[in-house]
Amino acid sequence: MSDLTAVSVSDLEYQALASGSALQPRPNFGVLVLGNRDRADFLQRMTTNDIARLQPGQAALTILTSPVARIDAVFSVLCRQEDLLLLPSEGQAEALRQRLQGQIFFMDKVTVSDESGNLCRLRLLGPSAGKSLLAAGLPQPTSDDNFLVADGVTVLRQERFDLPGYEIIAPVQMLDALQERLTRAGALPLVDSDSYEARRIEQGRPLPGKELTDAFSPLETGMTWVCAENKGCYTGQEIIARQLTYDKVTRTLVSLRSERPLSEGASVSVNDRAVGTVTSSGYSPTAGPVALAVLKRPHNVEGVEVMVDGVTARVEQIPLQAN
Fold first, then answer.
1. What would the DSSP string read from start to end of 187-201?
2. Percentage with pLDDT > 90 across the chain
3. 196 closest CA partner among 7, 10, 54
4. How many CB atoms lie within 10 A of CB 305?
5. Contacting residues for 1 by C-beta, under 8 A, at least 6 apart
6. How far apart are CA 79 and CA 40, in angstroms?
């Protein structure tokens, strides 16, 4: 990870994310389509969320977990009349397609196709994102995890996953025109990831590839809300249910604040004993050096002081408050 300093974060981009509207192109995110009669039942028995409850126009984040309840894949599911639109994490479209294809049994009426070459994705972020949508003439879903479609453009509202905002899916030939419309409507294009990372870490939002990996379970990374309790079995479900019932979640996601930037992947210790790992690190213009980490009990509560490579850090509440 490159050194993170105050000048490495664009003030304009950060302000757009914190108090305005920002546009993040997502060229490597991909889109899958799950079709045929058994599509919802198929995902219902494989992933953590209650996919069977979805009606057209509704969406849900869901997770594929391993037999030991570790995170294998995180993706959004949009319920349409004739199919399910799947939004994989960055760079994971082909891996997810292969994983799903490999789980289709001969009796399943399910098809999975990769539409990444035909559809593109953007994310509109910030408190004024809704105003930018309207100014650009795009539909604005009024509820979390709902989506609307107009003139071939799908707009999904997501408040609990990623930074709050709108995921926009459209034909690739519309990409340039959409970006221009949204920019004219007041959305500032994000040039690099520093400001996005700073804001994400401030808000305590776990990210695939950082916190949401096979090193952790959903319960350890603040994703309990994605694990539906009253549904049938799926891979890893028994372990997740047991951890919830008997309070067996022994480590959780926390925020850290320090005088100097921390290194991602560094060990976190208390009294020279390892208690966790730094998963994300950044520099916030309002909070200074910030990080996310997964820490063991009882060191995962606000106010605890920990050490990371000789740097003292303090466990803080999520989301972080400005200095």
1. PEEP-SSHHHHHHHH
2. 90
3. 10
4. 10
5. 263, 264, 281
6. 9
